[in-house]
Design brief:
- The protein is 64% helix and 0% strand.
- The protein is mainly alpha-helical.
- It has 5 helices and no strands.
- Helix 2 packs across helix 3 and helix 2 packs antiparallel against helix 5.
- The protein has one domain.
């Protein structure tokens, strides 16, 4: 008595596979050491040069986006009000435009760096990420 087995069918069609492949190619692994280096560069006593401001802003926004994505993926804000406050603060800072004045821009970068650092510490404390040394 032979049993009929349905033919194998791929779980995703071509467009869906292309979408998954694109997402994998864009993915950046979490790098806690680079995060701490970027935070340290902005919070250092030496004020970042005007030429370096945009580069620092891009990297800090990237860290904020990645930390928020990690926190949202594990639904940390539902269980930890402090983390939820840090997530909301990070989102607000990331959305703000960089001021044109050098002094104000440095202040904005430093607020972003503190936000990155605090959210990183909080996620490490509640074991969402491994803390970087």
């Amino acid at each position: 008595m032979a049993r009929t087995v349905p033919p194998w069918a791929p779980p995703l069609d071509g467009d869906e596979l292309q979408s998954v492949l694109s997402a994998v190619r864009r993915w950046q692994p979490f790098d806690g050491v680079a995060l701490l280096d970027d935070v340290g560069a902005v919070l250092d006593e030496v004020v970042p040069s005007e030429e370096a401001l945009e580069d620092h802003a891009v990297r800090l926004r990237g860290h904020l986006m990645q930390l928020v994505a990690i926190a949202v993926a594990v639904e940390v804000g539902q269980e930890d009000t402090k983390a939820e406050q840090l997530i909301e603060h990070a989102r607000r800072l990331r959305a703000e435009d960089m001021p044109g004045d050098h002094r104000q821009a440095v202040g904005h970068l430093r607020r972003m760096a503190w936000s990155v650092d605090l959210l990183h510490e909080r996620l490490g404390a509640i074991k969402c990420i491994r803390e970087a040394a």
